[in-house]
Amino acid sequence: MSARSVAGEVFLLQLVVVVLLVAAAVVALVVQARSDAMLDARHRTLAAAGTFAESPGIVAALRSPNPSAVLQPSAQAARKIAGVDGINVYTLDGVTLTHSDPRQIGKRVVGPFSRAAAGKSFTETFKSSLGQSVVSVVPVKDAQDRVLAVVASPVTVSNVQSMVNRQLPVVIGTAALVLALSAGGTALVSRRLLRRTHGLGPVEMTRMYEHHDAVLHAVREGVLIIGGGGRLLLANDEARRLLELPADAEGRPVTELGLEEGIATSIASGRSATDELHTAADRLLAVNIRPTAPFGQAGTVVTLRDTTELRALSGRAEVAHERLKLLYDAGVRIGTTLDVERTARELAEVAVPRFADIASVDLLDPVLHGDEPPEPGTEMRRTAVVAAKNPHPLYPVGELIRFVPTSPMALGVVGERAVRVADLRSTRDWMAQNPARSQRMLDQGVHSVIAVPLRARGVLLGMAGFWRVEPSPAFEEEDVSFAEELTARAALSIDNARRFTREHTMAVTLQRSLLPRGVPDQSAVEVAHRYLPAQAGVGGDWFDVIPLPGARVALVVGDVVGHGLHAAATMGRLRTAMHNFSTLDLPAEELLSHLDELVAHIDTDEGSGEQEWQGLTGATCLCAVYDSVSGQVTAATAGHPGPAVVHPDGTVSFPEIPVSPPLGLGAGLPMETATLTLPEGAQLVLFTDGLLENRDRDVDAALAVLGAALSGPARTPEETCAAVIGAMLPSGQSDDIALLVARTRRLDPARIAEWEVRSDPAAVSPVRTACARRLAEWGLEDIAFTTELILSELITNAVRYGSQPIRVRLLYDRSLVCEVSDGSSTSPHLRRAEATDEGGRGLFLVAQFAERWGTRYTARGKIIWSEQALHAESAADGEDLGAALLAAWDDEAF
């Protein structure tokens, strides 16, 4: 509390007064205590001396032979009881009989004992070596009233004062406590005064009240302050004039001041109000009510403004304000989605009931499908109807309407402008559209309409109709411009939605053509899959199942960040490239390496063009190659989540797969792989990150939910897909989802045959014979001759040009696979031999009689393989074989 404020000055003044009063009280108490101490010393010594002088036996003791021996003990005991310095007995000639110091007994003293010897008692104050002292002297008389001796009782004032001094701290402490309580009370009072005066000083308070009076009485706006109970506390001059208040109005309830009921109730209610209009006498007053808290005591302040002259303009201003607000709301509410039908309904919802009682939107059919609008026509489909009260008499949503030339809608199409019919009851031309329905509209009170063309970029999209029903007033001319402005904003949103629908349809068509429509037939795995597009549109997630030679299969999932045509087209390019690279029969890591190089090449090539290119650095891919003979899975990932493995007992694991950078960022570095061995019946689950993304949980929690969905008793891949989608599908997914579930199978060992081959041409014949016997055991005699020919050529090439170890393997699956492996990495090439060449026709024959053939490199060499159909017709085989053998040589060769 600054001393510059009123509260501060009052506090300082009261504090000074309290300090002075407390100091004066303490001084008075100390002085009084000292005076009382001196008086107490006089009374105490006089009482002690008189009591001892009147004590029984003192006369007999004085007349005894040795008075000191008799009286000294009694005097000492009496001295201690009385609290005096001594009780001394003297003879009339000054000989000491008793003394507080026994050494003084018998000595003669000279003192003022003459008055006592005369028989009178007295008390005196004198200065001694111990300080100021008080002594009382009392004579000792016998029965005949003769003075025999005198008794003196001295006491030092300092001894008495010590008792007073022991009480002095209590006095001072009490005074300090009183001072503290007084200062605290003064501070509380001053602080309350500070809150009341808001820290203002005397000058400021004086100026404030002067300004308050000047403003309160000079302002041309009525001001009322209403307290608790609805009583009027203050009214300025303008308020008295506007309300015609009596002179004694202050302090009385507002409801008893003779005001009209409406304004009196509003003022006394205590609620907040802004520009409420009330009548008082012949005036129209705008009333504003605000609570005074927290700036003052509970109550309200009311301001009154005379708006009688503005009464005629208030209606128009309110309508204009409402129209502006409606246009603002239309800009916010229309076009929230890129859906044509939803946008049309939003237009109708904005218009009802603030502008019309019923609103309808009719669009051309091509607009609903996302196509470019044709030439303007009067055949439209009812897309949206919103009515303040249902049921409405208009055409229902979805009906195709052909407007007659005399209808407001057709006139609006032809004239390319809004058409207003102020009174539908005064004209019958519009009823030709549907007389029965039109009459029903009139019966239900529909009486006015505005038909406005929906145009965007100079093209007609449809018509909007605004209808009013009794008791609403008819549309006026100024309503037409507002309706045109409202529909113009909506038309842009509808056209944007139409164009999005067209692009979305194109993207969906492209994506469906690029995604696999089914999985190819193969025996390595049993496959089920799901693809769920995002709500925002098609995306770049994809999957594929690619059969590979040797009873193997490649399982691939990929993700391209983004949505729309660009993502779908990119996904198609990557899927096509993966198919092409898989024909090279490369390991999983090399497939991804080639794909990474392709993406980097695409980014470099496209980025050098004139158009802006965002790049494919958001593309990821996971490739897993499963071998049904060994049960091994080799997996490599480029920035993609790893797979999940569901074991036959229902347990789930997420194996650690080394993650390489996303496609296009590998910088030519080799991809890392992980190799797993899966038992038959295990399920390999591959998915894109859209399955894990959820705003309500993190990735670890999502993986836990996925593991719980995958675990459990044995299920088919289709059942597993359904369980995962049911548990993991987020509400309102923002990304598309690809899910691929493959249950592993093992090739029956009885359908596998293997032989070691020595590096000797003579070893070819025994192996060929063993292969023929095994084919006979499998019931494949129809293709035995062709198989022997193929094996002879492949084994001979391995013996001649390869290196140890040389192995032959037959796989009996959907087709017969012949594999010849050796330790050389030299790649064979198919060529047409010249007429003079003695060799070079072996691979040509293999290519002629095998459905497919190729080379697969391993860590220890290569494998040359071929595939044959299982049951070929014998005649056809013989003809094909003979033709092929003859075609290998021409006539000039013989």
From TrEMBL:
GO terms for molecular function: kinase activity. Gene3D superfamilies: 3.30.450.40, Histidine kinase-like ATPase, C-terminal domain, PAS domain, PPM-type phosphatase domain. The lineage of its organism: Bacteria, Bacillati, Actinomycetota, Actinomycetes, Kitasatosporales. Keywords: Cell membrane, Hydrolase, Kinase, Membrane, Transferase, Transmembrane, Transmembrane helix. It is found in: Cell membrane. It comes from the Bacteria. The chain crosses the membrane at residues 168-189. The keyword Membrane applies. Residues 522-744 form the PPM-type phosphatase domain. CDD domains: HATPase_RsbW-like. This is Histidine kinase. Residues 329-504 form the GAF domain. It is a multi-pass membrane protein.
